[in-house]
Specification:
Elements: H1 3-16, E1 19-20, E2 30-31, E3 34-35, H2 36-42, H3 53-65, H4 70-76, H5 78-91, H6 93-106, H7 125-164, H8 172-180
Helix pairs in contact: 1-3, 4-5, 5-6, 5-7, 6-7, 7-8
Length: 182
Amino acid sequence: MNVLKIRLIKELIDREGGYVNDPTDRGGETMYGITKAVARDFGYTGEMQDMPYQTAFLIQDQRYWSPLKLSKISVLSESLAEQLFDFAVHSGVSTSAKALQKALNVLNKCQSLYPDLVVDGIPGSRTISALTDYAAVRKNRGLDVLAEAVRGQRISFCIDIAANDESQEKYQFGWLDRIVNL
């Protein structure tokens, strides 16, 4: 298994912490950042507070890391992979992938670097190809800009959650602090 992937998954689990059951959190009962619904979908049937670390690790890998093609992305940019991974665990793979696709579309110099992507939240071969083409032209500086563009969309996404549901305001500082300091 990729050393970087192992490290980033472990760091994410550490950030998420252990068992939480806040009745106002829309994610509900969680352990290591895994919601009860996701755990059940994965096949875990035990009590959430008893979820083994290794089960959480496998869920983070199979549910979030792999579908985003982060092993391919992390070869180009660790910071972009980390932003996308953390975003996916917090807000879903599709939301994270859409942020990447939108940013790539607006950074493609009117399609002179690669064709516009369909912003469908599915990070397939076209998304990876566009990212590779972008990286070939823009290099590390461009990848840093792209990671920040994803971060900016994530901040906006979180602010919109609270703007549309006042009960979620109590989480804003923590969410934004996490994003800004990731």
